[in-house]
Specification:
heterotrimer, A: about 260 residues, mainly alpha, MetI-like fold, about 80% helix, C: about 250 residues, alpha/beta, Rossmann fold, 6-stranded mixed β-sheet, 4-stranded antiparallel β-sheet, 10 strands, globular, binds adenosine-5'-triphosphate, binds magnesium ion
């Protein structure tokens, strides 16, 4: 009796063959790719030996060149601040002009393409090109991070605007408000919190990235970091890495506080 | 009627205005201090447009014939690094993520350790990770794969831990109450609920990793970045432009693929 | 003021797709202390009609005069300035939820104040005084600092009305102002609209689905059906026969 009922509905839990096949495929792929890339267990174990050596050379960390370190950190922070300020400043109009619910399509097309271009390349590629264009130093880093910021904030901001309610905008237009006032009263209040969120996130990202652009010569602590690597100066390297992590954590803490003010 | 006319009206209360003013002042001071002390030579900025035009001129006739022999294999390598590295990140993230979820592991010290691992993975840039692993494993895709794995574990682990914390406790409690050992509580209680999030996180990170694995070669960690580095060092600008174009194409295709799969799954 | 405030619609036609008019040859005039209800089935074009008046939707043909100024032929800045004379009240209130009640009321002045001053919230003191007076008279003075999304539906609609009045309009348009509200609040909102219209001599046009409310509060009813006016007269003369003609069928009249 009850067996007949069970038969009617089949097994109570569906064996999900797709999922199993997926896992098997992923596993087989990992084997294949590891082989292709010549990633082998032996090399890995060898590497771990080097890694132990590497770590042991890092301690005790070297604070004797703290002056250089502080100078570099300050330059890194400066790059991040300037790039974030200009990046945010440009993202606001660019994001607005890319929002398809407010602007005619030929305008949004232009700005969406621009944003897509800013996003598709890794910042380090921009850094290389800007170093060629404006020479070594923080200027190249600043320009790089401005473009990275526009790519990130511009896109998210445009998407946030596309999600707003158009009702208050209809009301403001009906009252004869000029376009800029409609933006100021109808659009910005609806997206300002998110914009501040994106911006403070981007400031953190810029700080992290400004430690990187130096590797290709675009200013900041990255250059010193790279030099420490090349000179096998691992105890100083450890100091640099620790200070970068500390810097990022401090800035994350500050941006949480700032967000509270603008709640 | 006239009593109302005596009102003044301000948008924020005094405390709010003070807090905002402080933040704005802080920004303004930081920005102007930075602008004044940073070592920027304005002449270089004015010169930039000419330099950019010059650069573009040298890039222009693309040396497309370079792709099949010079770029293709490196590009395939890049994609493998991205994929394998993401898988590695997930393998690493499971233990770290579980360690960090305070509703599974109830030891604050372990939770804290997991958070530390996650934070340093994210705050150290992928190029820096690449440098580290090139120093350890020597140049090549092994260093690249491990780099991508380590760099991603923070991101994957964080999202994974969030997904775990959102798990509906009902089934878990039922299993625990039935006296199931904790591995089977995890496999039957948590796992089915987080699998969709798991795949979404994988796709999301893979997309990012395609971009990253294209550049870590600049410091020797394998993939198309190494080809780019060579072309840059030798000033083969017509090759640089082809490499950039192929990176762009692959990145766009990867993004399209991910969008498509995600629509299919969700 | 020299002449009374008025609105005149002449031979208005609106087609969303060519050859299929939603509104066909609509004409009527309202002036002074008059309140007019526009009734008609869903989809017959009431909202379209009201939005053609301030050219939020451009009419296909015909003219609309507000206090003898032809709105239809205006555009750009001139149109914006003319829109200040047309107050509008919406079914879903259309407030800026994240701004305070005061900011919402003052946003009725945006057509008069430069964007720069609007951004800094530097409104002329007389605007602020008027806003306070209005908030007092509609019973929301205690709420002026609160955000609009913390208010109830009836309170929000009052804010919406205050915003429209701040424009010092020559005509007040309301598109189903009570459809999102409970019956008691609906009556209060209708009372407020009619009172303000009479007190200030502003002609009032209300789109409304509730025929009883329309009859109770307005001095004239226009019945729309299939894009044309099928009834235009006093509420008391509106019979079931007319309603049958406007809405079609008769079972619902029981
Ligand atoms: N933007 C538009 N594009 C095309 N057709 C539209 C548009 N807006 C409205 N319509 C059509 O015009 C007709 C009238 O719409 P309208 O919203 O004016 O009706 P209504 O009388 O206000 O209805 P309701 O009582 O439900 O509010 C409807 O058939 C609608 O489908
Ligand atoms: Mg309508």
């Amino acid at each position: 009796m009850s067996a007949a009922v069970s038969q009617k509905y089949g097994p109570p839990f569906k064996t999900n063959w797709w999922v199993r096949a997926g896992w098997t495929l992923a596993f087989l792929y990992a084997l294949y790719a590891a082989n292709y890339l010549d990633v082998s267990w032996v090399r890995f174990i060898q590497g771990l030996g080097n890694g132990g050596q590497f770590l042991s050379e890092m301690v005790p960390i070297d604070f004797s060149r703290w002056k250089l370190l502080v100078e570099n950190l300050i330059e890194t922070i400066e790059i991040a601040i300037i790039a974030s300020a200009f990046g945010v400043f440009f993202s606001l109009p660019i994001g607005l002009l890319a929002a398809r619910n407010l602007m005619p399509s030929w305008v949004t097309w232009v700005f969406r393409t621009f944003i897509a271009l800013c996003r598709s390349f890794h910042p380090v590629i921009f850094a290389i090109l800007f170093v060629k264009a404006v020479g070594f130093g923080p200027l190249a880093g600043i320009l790089t991070l401005i473009f990275a910021s526009i790519g990130f904030i511009g896109k998210l901001f445009a998407e946030a605007i596309e999600e707003i309610s158009l009702k208050p905008i209809e009301a403001l237009r009906a009252s004869g408000a000029p376009f800029i006032s409609v933006i100021l009263y109808g659009v910005l209040p609806q997206v300002l919190n998110r914009f501040i969120g994106f911006s403070s996130y981007q400031f953190d990202a810029n700080l992290r990235n400004s430690t990187m652009v130096g590797i290709v010569g675009a200013g900041g602590i990255g250059g010193t970091l790279f030099a420490a690597f090349q000179r096998f100066d691992y105890d100083f390297l450890a100091t640099i890495l620790i200070s970068i992590i500390a810097l990022v954590m401090v800035s994350e803490f500050i941006s949480v506080q700032i967000k509270k003010v603008f709640q | 009627m006239s009593s109302a006319s005596n009102h003044t009206w301000n948008r924020f209360t005094l405390a709010q205005r003070l807090a905002r003013f402080t933040v704005f002042l802080g920004f303004a001071v930081a920005l102007s201090a930075s602008l004044r002390t940073v070592e920027v030579i304005p002449e270089f900025l004015y010169d930039a447009p000419t330099q950019v035009i010059d650069l573009l001129g040298r890039m222009w006739p693309l040396d497309l014939s370079y792709y099949p022999g010079g770029i293709h294999d490196a590009m395939v390598e890049t994609l493998h690094i991205a994929t394998l590295g993401t898988l590695l990140a997930i393998v690493l993230a499971v233990p770290v993520g579980i360690m960090g979820a305070n509703n599974i592991v109830r030891l604050p010290l372990l939770n804290w350790l997991a958070k530390l691992i996650l934070v340093s993975s994210r705050s150290v840039n992928s190029l820096v990770w690449a440098l580290l692993f090139v120093a350890i494993f020597g140049p090549g895709p092994l260093a690249g794969t491990v780099c991508i794995g380590f760099r991603s574990v923070g991101f994957v682990g964080k999202l994974f831990a969030e997904a775990l914390e959102e798990v509906n406790p009902g089934p878990v409690e039922a299993l625990t109450a039935a006296g199931a050992p904790w591995p089977s509580v995890f496999l039957k209680g948590y796992w089915p609920q987080v699998v969709p999030a798991f795949w979404a996180i994988f796709l999301f990170r893979w997309d990012i990793n395609v971009r990253e694995s294209a550049v870590i070669g600049l410091v020797g960690a394998g993939g198309v970045g190494m080809v780019l580095d060579t072309a840059l060092n030798l000033f083969y600008w017509d090759r640089v432009s082809v490499i950039l174009l192929s990176i762009f194409t692959v990145v766009v295709l990867a993004e399209l693929l991910v969008t498509k799969i995600r629509k299919h799954i969700i | 003021m020299a002449s009374t405030r008025s609105i005149r619609v002449e031979n208005l036609v609106k087609e969303y797709t060519a050859g299929k008019p939603v509104l066909n040859d609509i004409s009527f005039t309202v002036s002074g202390k008059a309140s007019v209800a526009i009734i008609g089935p869903s989809g017959t074009g009431k909202s379209t009609l009201i939005r053609c008046v301030n050219k939020l939707i451009p009419p296909t043909a015909g003219n609309v005069y507000v206090s003898d100024e032809n709105i239809t032929e205006l555009s750009g800045k001139a149109l914006r300035q003319a829109r200040r004379k047309i107050g509008m009240v919406f079914q879903e209130f259309n407030l800026v939820e994240r701004l305070s009640v005061m900011e919402n009321v003052l946003s009725g002045r945006l057509g008069y104040v430069s964007p720069w001053r609007a951004w800094l919230r530097k409104y002329p003191q007389q605007d602020i005084d008027r806003a306070f007076e209005l908030l007092e008279s509609i019973g929301l003075i205690d709420f002026f600092r609160q955000r609009a999304d913390s208010l109830s539906g009836g309170q929000r609609q009052r804010v919406g009305i205050a915003r429209a009045i701040m424009q010092e309009p020559h005509v007040l348009l309301a598109d189903e102002p009570t459809s999102s509200l409970d019956p008691k609040t609906s009556v209060e909102i209708m009372e407020l609209l009619v009172a303000l219209s009479e007190e200030r001599g502003i002609p009032l046009i209300i789109n409304i689905h509730d025929v009883e409310l329309a009859k109770r509060f307005t001095s004239r009813v226009i019945g729309l059906s299939k894009g044309g006016i099928v009834y235009d007269g006093s509420p008391s003369a509106l019979t079931n026969e007319h309603l049958k003609e406007i809405y079609g069928g008769e079972d619902w009249l029981q």
